[in-house]
Amino acid sequence: MKRKIAVAAGLTLVALALLSTRFYLVDLRVWHFFGGGESLDPATLHLRGEFVESNLGAAQQPSGTLTVRMIAQQFVFVPRCIEVPAGVPVTFRITSADAVHMLSFMGTSYGLKAVPGEVTQATFTFAKPGEFKIPCHEFCGAGHYAMRGQLDVIPQNQFASLLPGERRTCESH
Ligand code: CUA
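Above: the input record for the complex with dinuclear copper ion. Below: its predicted structure, written as tokens.
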């Protein structure tokens, strides 16, 4: 009898351990079922919707504000380098294609978490021009320590306004 209980307890522990490694997937389904958050399928990010490759980078919204869309994935940020003007509020929208990642803009107090299945949004203003490294600050696998992107903040008068369909990265000019 005692042996059976021990085996049952052991199996329960294994099941819990397996579940905990996948918890965000279970968690998100429940969360989205009840209408929470912006639902995204990490597996089809590149194929359709807001985060297709041609829509990544800086974009001018109809209201004139600037939005930067990015994907974090093992072990790169896409686009690798983004360019924004100084002294202007920039809204970041980011998601992950796999694990949880954490962007931090080195030399600033700004950071953003990238979670699979969700869009994280935050608005930052970079006061002065400069180059900021974007290391990943959440352990996300074997390549975590080499995962980094870059943000180039350029003077506002050098950042020409974007056409409606135009997306800007460091490589666009
Ligand atoms: Cu991505 Cu650590």
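Notes for the reader.
The radius of gyration is 20 Å.
The mean pLDDT is 86.
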